[in-house]
Amino acid sequence: MGLILPEHIAKVWPTVAVWIRRGLAACPYVPISLAATRARLARRRYALLVAAVGEELVAAAVLEHVELRGTRYLTIIAAGGERARSLELAGPPLWQAIERIAKGLGVDSIRLRGRPGWLRWIRSSGRLREVTVDYVVR
Predict the structure, then answer these.
(1) From first to last of its 138 residues, what are the pLDDT tens digits of the chain?
(2) Domain housing 69
(3) Is there a contact between 73 and 106 (Cβ–Cβ < 8 Å)?
């Protein structure tokens, strides 16, 4: 588990891009493309956190540190992984790493848009303050 420096992103991008694309697709109202995400990673505007089981990458998350009107927060822009293994093996440690990064940055909160499965690990940490529900009316 660890953050990937921008100069090393090219090594993992072929693997993680598929997962990040799926994460972005899960939230179609997040107005950012995969290409823009990659460019922001290269410019250090975003950070890439990856999780591995042994030598095999199984999950990744794109993070953004934001300060807006005096409030500092860490946003999970997109996350994903190997469907069968990522949530089971890497979900809890990935969330714990995100919490450590947030504490290290001194942020006030962590924000994310994603599938409801994320709530499983967030809720178990006991500090869930607010949930936004995006209900699609058909």
Answers:
(1) 689 999 999 999 999 999 999 888 887 777 889 999 999 999 999 999 998 888 888 889 999 999 989 989 898 888 888 866 666 777 778 888 988 999 999 998 888 876 666 666 666 666 666 666 666 676
(2) 2-124
(3) no
Residue 66: what are its φ and ψ, rounded to 5°? -125, 140
Is 92 part of any domain?
Answer: yes
CATH number at residue 69: 3.40.630.30
The contacts of residue 21 (CB under 8 Å, 6+ apart) are 34
Q: How far apart are CA 94 and CA 88, in angstroms?
A: 11
CA 59 to chain centre: 9
Locus of tokens 């303050």? 129
> Is residue 129 a part of any domain in this protein?
no
Q: Per the domain annotation, does 134 fall within a domain?
A: no
